[in-house]
Amino acid sequence: MPVLMHHAPALVSAAPPRGSRTPAPTANEPKRVNIKIHRKRTSMDSLIIPPGYRPLIGVKETERAIKALKDFFELNLATELSLSRVTAPLFVPSGTGINDDLNGVEQPVSFAVKAIPGVRAEIVQSLAKWKRLQLAQLGFGPGYGLYTDMNAIRPDEGLDNTHSLYVDQWDWERVITPAERNVEFLKKIVRKIYSILKRAEHFVCERYPAIRPELPEEIQFVHAEELLAQYPKLTPKEREREFVREHRAVFIIGIGGQLADGSIHDGRAPDYDDWSSPGENGWPGLNGDIFVWNPVLEMAFELSSMGIRVDREALLRQLEIRKCLERKNLLWHRRLIEGQMPLSIGGGIGQSRLCMYYLRKAHIGEIQASMWPSDMLERCRAGNLPLL
Fold first, then answer.
1. Could you tell me if residue 125 is inside a domain?
2. What's the predicted TM-score (pTM) here?
3. What CATH number does residue 123 fall under?
4. In 3D, which of 83, 103, 51 has the Cα closest to residue 264?
5. How many CB atoms lie within 10 A of CB 45?
6. Tens of pLDDT along 90-139?
7. Active-site residues: which are they?
């Protein structure tokens, strides 16, 4: 049964309110960085109740379908990318730089560890950087890597049809060579992942005839700079919607790097994806997001964020761009700078998002159990969206 929250959670913003002061970080805590992001705030106003919505399969069958789909996708992901499963942590030590800072403004859940005096831990927000440590520790070579079944809590997340406090995803990472640090290799891996998405769609549609296939044969590639040039008067989210509606499956390259108008398409932390190295046509960015067209919500629907990871030069450059060079003294960053971690490519694929898309659900709460504001629960109940 979903848990009621009588007050909506605080919204994420790219900068503190005017007149407020951001608390200074402690000596061992990375500084939170404010960046210019064209991001629409999520709130009750953004909740979508599709007219006449009826789930195509019931709650019990949905639970069985989630299990079958996750098993199928996980096996195919491991096989297609030559990945081995490893056990993932739920929390990591604070002040080490291992946790994911996302856009640089989201605060992780942290707590004191009674059995280890003086130590604090943080619930992971993703395992983007932890995985690279594991590649080194477990001795993976080029062409091979790992994946995890990751669970995270993001307390600053806005809540709507596609965002929850609880995040579950397959986090994966694979060792690459210096010659593979380019956009062509990035596209090669994206096409491999898209082939899994196509197979998974067939897997679902074969079992549930009411669910019709939607994915095109091939995924379209576009740089964020091209989207800006094509839709100069639209926000990044509006550009995504227009382009994905036309092409149905899209990989947007260059997420996090500065565009011609001084903005960025969307936020990226400076210390995992390489969004600043020159790529295709000289545009910066060796990373991106996979989007598909969601026919239930009629929106561009992000399934995966991924990219070639920073090397030493890109890390230092991006820390300087984001004005957080002090992070280079953190444990994780020192190890990368000192050459103790391999070059890699990696990403995350949302499990609940994936199931929501394939099973044609209108709300992520129809796939996972989480907490929602009471007025959202009431509106979903009235709109026939059965939240778990």
1. yes
2. 0.87
3. 3.30.930.10
4. 103
5. 8
6. 999 998 888 877 665 678 889 999 999 999 999 988 898 999 999 999 99
7. 100, 154, 169, 289, 302, 305
